[in-house]
Amino acid sequence: MRIDVISLFPEFIDQSTGFGVVGRARERALLQLQGWNPRDYASGNYRRVDDRPFGGGPGMVMLIEPLRACLEAARQADPTPAPVLYLSPQGRPLTQARVRELALLPRMILLCGRYEGVDERLLAHQVDEEISIGDYVLSGGELAAAVLIDAVTRLQEGVLNDAESAAQDSFEGEGGLLDCPHFTHPASHAWGEVPEVLRSGNHAAIARWRRQQSLGRTWLRRPELLDESALSPADRKLLEAFRQEWAADGSPAKP
Ligand code: ADE
């Protein structure tokens, strides 16, 4: 996959994607990442990329022209067509389902805004989709772009090894549930024991326990993700047993 990133801080993108799974994918050319700085396409001695907003108010707005020229240069750098995605809190919230779709693209161009935003006319004419990574405000789109790059890269063929396999991740398993808890050595610690079933060697029982924990966690923490009517009869039984155990433990009422 090729990703071009338009940003006033291309080094930020370069450095934040240089580690771990994504760093390795770049080294192996499974991800081709190229930064583009709109300042390089700005005119005048000051290479201005922003100006005051019409109508007044605080902050600065990114100018159309440097962004347009920069986008054009990025497009021309490769014949592969690419949608332009703008990272902003006004965008559609990113989900794992959308990440899976985007991960199938051969190429995309990410546009990162700074200041109060980008001239709306550039967005209207050049942007295919606006994406938010959550209902909070960052100082710019770079961190959000790095999040999106990470999420799509780890789904590329050959990026994860078997041990890192994405299939077990939260949202990726059957039904889009949260992941189950994980434990490693020691089996016994001052902070608690590893559940007996995980040490039993009974693979069917372990799989059932993990599925039940995923169901239970999703019910407790993200009930809106759980479409109970779509659960299999076996899943419903597991969840019901989880709930009964939860209530019997004298646990506080579910928030
Ligand atoms: N830029 C600033 N805040 C953002 C957010 N929440 N998501 C995506 N891009 C952003």
TrEMBL record:
SUPFAM superfamilies in UniProt: alpha/beta knot
Enzyme superclass (EC): transferase
Keyword list, A-Z: Cytoplasm, Methyltransferase, S-adenosyl-L-methionine, Transferase, tRNA processing
Record has Transport as a keyword: no
Keyword Transferase: yes
Gene Ontology cellular-component terms listed: cytosol
Protein name, per record: tRNA (guanine-N(1)-)-methyltransferase
GO biological process, one term: tRNA N1-guanine methylation
CDD domains from the UniProt entry: TrmD-like
Native organism: Pseudoxanthomonas spadix (strain BD-a59)
Residues at which S-adenosyl-L-methionine binds: G113, I133, G134, D135, Y136, V137, L138
Family: Belongs to the RNA methyltransferase TrmD family.
